[in-house]
């Protein structure tokens, strides 16, 4: 039985790539993925603990669930599969294992996690991000789960093709922080160190001409933001750094202020312009 490739780095588990079924060109698998995401959304609507986690992070917008199809994997998907007849259950399990949402062991990839699906500008699934909300059970458990196809993509990728100015964050939670406070021109990568040529290619073929890098204030985040800034400016995309207080990122910042919408807008106005460099080594 196929098990998607898995790597683990500290508290992040990455599953890649998702293998589509060749005989149906992925259409049947896509249908199953959609049904699972819908189930996770309904689970989130009724799970008080998961909703409390979002509220604790300040993510309380009324349209959040429907706009982004957020969900919660409460470990009950297997019980739903058992309600099917044997052939149906085995067919669905095979599809879920094939795309990586279900492990060979029967455990859900996103078990115990809030699920943030990622779609391209046409609404096709690209993958998703999972944030577990319970304490780690073992030293091998991970809070963050990255699940994606062979091609990279942004969370809220449609914004990349709708706006000329883009706020770029390192996680869906941070992107939704901006979105909940009125900034629709926001997208996110999966982690601050994941920006590669595929992300760059998407931006090159988009409407974006100015990127606000809002990655956070730690040294690794700032170093990575500088690397990305070099890549973007070298490709004629203007860059500004959003500067947070020491130790803060977008989400941590809004939880410390009384008027998040006003303060986030102020951060954009006070962002630092990254000078375009002509020639030289862009890796430094």
From TrEMBL:
Gene3D superfamilies attached to this UniProt entry: 3.40.1360.10, DNA primase, catalytic core, N-terminal domain (3.90.980.10)
InterPro entries, per database record: DNA_primase_core_N_sf (IPR037068), DNAG_N (IPR013264)
Source organism superkingdom: Bacteria
DNA primase DNAG catalytic core N-terminal domain span: 39-135
Cited Pfam families: DNAG_N
Protein name: DNA primase DNAG catalytic core N-terminal domain-containing protein
Organism: Stutzerimonas stutzeri (Pseudomonas stutzeri)
């Amino acid at each position: 039985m196929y098990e998607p490739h898995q790597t683990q780095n500290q508290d992040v588990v990455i599953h890649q790539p998702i293998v589509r079924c060749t005989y149906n060109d992925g259409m049947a698998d896509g249908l199953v993925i959609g049904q699972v995401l819908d189930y996770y959304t309904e689970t989130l609507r009724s799970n008080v603990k998961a909703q409390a986690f979002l509220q604790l992070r300040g993510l309380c917008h009324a349209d959040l669930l429907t706009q982004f199809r957020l969900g919660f994997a409460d470990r009950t998907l297997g019980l739903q599969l058992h309600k099917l007849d044997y052939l149906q259950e085995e067919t669905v399990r095979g599809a879920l294992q094939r795309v990586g949402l279900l492990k060979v062991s029967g455990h859900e990839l996103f078990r115990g996690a809030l699920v943030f699906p990622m779609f391209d500008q046409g609404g096709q699934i690209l993958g998703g991000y999972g944030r577990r909300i319970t304490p780690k059970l073992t030293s091998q458990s991970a809070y963050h789960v990255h699940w994606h196809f062979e091609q990279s993509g942004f969370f809220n990728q449609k914004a990349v093709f709708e706006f000329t100015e883009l706020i770029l964050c390192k996680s869906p939670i941070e992107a939704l922080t901006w979105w909940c406070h009125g900034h629709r021109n926001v997208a996110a990568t999966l982690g601050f160190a994941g920006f590669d040529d595929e992300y760059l290619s998407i931006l090159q073929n988009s409407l974006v001409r100015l990127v606000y890098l809002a990655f956070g204030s730690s040294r690794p985040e700032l170093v990575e933001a500088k690397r990305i800034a070099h890549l973007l400016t070298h490709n004629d995309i203007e860059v500004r750094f959003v500067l947070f207080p020491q130790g803060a990122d977008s989400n941590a910042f809004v939880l410390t202020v009384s008027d998040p919408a006003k303060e986030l807008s102020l951060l954009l106005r006070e962002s630092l312009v990254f000078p375009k460099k002509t020639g030289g080594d862009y890796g430094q």
